[in-house]
Design a protein that fits this description.
single chain, alpha+beta, 3 helices, 3 strands
Length: 79
């Protein structure tokens, strides 16, 4: 699991103690780690490359790693 060093703004309606706050941040961190993984990215996106559409994991990750996509290549979120 990745380190819990991240910038989060957590707002509560009522004042909570330190232990409850740390537990809430740990739960948020675990939720974010699950959604930030490559598997979740590949399930939620597809690559449109000129005239074909692909959902292959290695092609999606390779395209996402580039700073800028080639002309007429689009990463589409399926949601």
């Amino acid at each position: 699991m990745k380190s819990q060093n991240r910038d989060l703004l957590v707002l509560f309606k009522e004042k909570v103690n330190q232990q409850a706050f740390e537990q809430q941040v740990a739960c948020l961190h675990q939720l974010l780690v699950q959604t930030e993984c490559n598997d979740a990215f590949c399930v939620a996106h597809e690559l449109v490359a000129r005239i074909k559409i692909t959902s292959k994991r290695n092609i999606l990750l390779k395209a996402a790693a580039q700073a800028e996509l080639k002309p007429f290549y689009f990463l589409i979120n399926k949601n």
